[in-house]
Amino acid sequence: MASLRLALPLVVGALLASVALSSCSADASSAPAPTSSSARSADAAVDAPAASPTVDPMEEDRSAAAVCGQISALSTIALNASDGRSRGALTDAQYEALIAAERFGYEHLSSSDERLDNAIDYAHEYLDAHPAPASGPALEDSPEWELVGRTLNTACQQAGSNVVATAQSGG
To answer: What's the DSSP call for residue 141?
Structure first.
């Protein structure tokens, strides 16, 4: 039970990071800064009904920014799991639990942005062709899986989002 207690904060932290990053998908930088003349027109528009459609708060954000944020969180899980295992900070069971969580995240990626569709389909095809083993890590580091990761990263960059993995330790 102690091994689960050590891995749980990593998984919870990564999931919280994913949620935080996916909720940052609104582009507030596109709104112009009010000037003195636009401030007066903004005051007059306060009583006008909102022009944007109502968003269901329970609907998944499938925008490029949200999906690339999820990929960042999954990359963070993988990076810290590998690092923790190599430093002896994680047991094999803890490492395998984190990699299973990473795989689950990749299996459930979907996007409303066409620029990500082919890369996500490629990841799903790879995962379908390489099912998780009954024991051991759910994903193996291989040149083919690294190519999937690079393909997802490139698609995110083309969609205007970066994929960033955050190391828990090191420099």
So the answer is: -
Amino acid at 161: S
Q: How many CB atoms lie under 10 A from the CB of residue 66?
A: 23
First-to-last alpha carbon distance for the chain, in angstroms, is 30
**What is the distance between the alpha carbons of residues 70 and 162, in angstroms, rounded to a whole number?**
11
Measured in whole angstroms, the distance separating CA 146 from the mean position of its chain's CA atoms is: 17
CA distances from 11 to 15, 104, 160 (A): 6, 12, 27
pLDDT tens-digit readout, 38-84: 444 444 444 444 555 566 777 888 999 999 999 999 999 999 999 99
Q: How far is CA 63 from CA 10, 19, 81, 149, in A?
A: 25, 13, 27, 19
Q: List, in order, residues 6 or more apart from 87 with CB less than 8 Å away.
A: 169
Four-CA torsion 111, 76, 135, 108, nearest 10 degrees: -10
**Do 138 and 95 meet the contact criterion of CB atoms below 8 Å apart?**
no
Q: Which residues of 109-145 are buried (b: 16+ CB within 10 A; e: fewer)?
A: bebebebbeebbeebbebbeebebeeeebbbeeeeeb
* pTM for this model (two decimals): 0.68
